[in-house]
Fold:
Amino acid sequence: MKTLGLLRRQRALLNCAPISEDRLTDRSMRSAVSSAAASADFVNQQNFDRAVAELVRLIPIPPETAEWFSEKDLVVGSKWTWKKMVRNPAVLAISIAVAVIAGVSVFLLVSHLNDFPGSATARKLLTVAASTRPVMLDPVSTEAGTLSDLFFMKHGLEHYDVPDEFADFRTIGCRVFEDEESRRIAQIWLGEKRMQLFLFPAERNTKTGAVLRFPGWRYVHQEGWVGAVTERSGVCFMAALRGGEKDLQPYLSTAAGR
Amino acid sequence: MEASKTDLQPEPLELDEHDVAPEAALQIEQLEPTQLAVWISNAPDPQRAALALFYLDEFDCREILELAELKLSELSRLLAQGRRQLQAWLDAKHPEAHKV
Structure:
């Protein structure tokens, strides 16, 4: 019974055997055709079909009917090719979405590679720097290094010391404010390239309370601003200005020279 | 409309059927393309659709099955029957070629 079924299916396939060999896309059809290739009946059928198809090609299409079909409306055989698959709007949309997701992931990965304890706060302070106007600060004209005493005496802020690299620059103003996490931030405006200095508490281990230290200077970027951050005695210091790392590097290299 | 639905139905036509002959290609060559077009267009549906899609030679078997909404066994039967009927028509139209 099974053999009979197979024969019946093979007979059905042979009856539908395509006229052109390039339409032999189905494996079972290819197998049926190759096994019957030598049969006289099948050869007769193929010759018959070819002759009919040849004549069908010559059937004139009335002009009014031809007008119905512009080239873009014609039904195209759905032969699978890479080119067609790439042009498929769904595939294209998915590819673009995957590329965007991959791009964002790589961007996040690269940006987090440069993270350090306090980098999130530093970025927020760069936004503060971008929106600060001189009138918002108390006018103070002195050397930046001397403000450590002011912060300690007036606000009780210990170790809010401006590093030597920036201690000699003249200030325009300063203020102390609290951020949304009630941490006290000292902000200093310098005359030098309209640079702003920030002093804020370093991040601590939530369990032990120990300061999370990091060596040297680290850069952060936000909205066209760049900041160079270092940590000393549990307090982070950031020098910020509008521009790139190359604008800050000369100030930091003077420290290395000293 | 009502009359055409109930009263004026065409009588089912029993067409002759002959086995496909080896010299069928010669008989087909003697046909005018429009004669073949008329013959195919007079076939009843779904045979007309099956023959048209098959002899357009633009689609593979699977695509024809999808477009005509047929099963393989149905398409096979319609095509085989179509060939045999076309052969009978050719034999009636060009009997001399059949005798060669």
About this structure: Chain A has ten helices and seven strands.
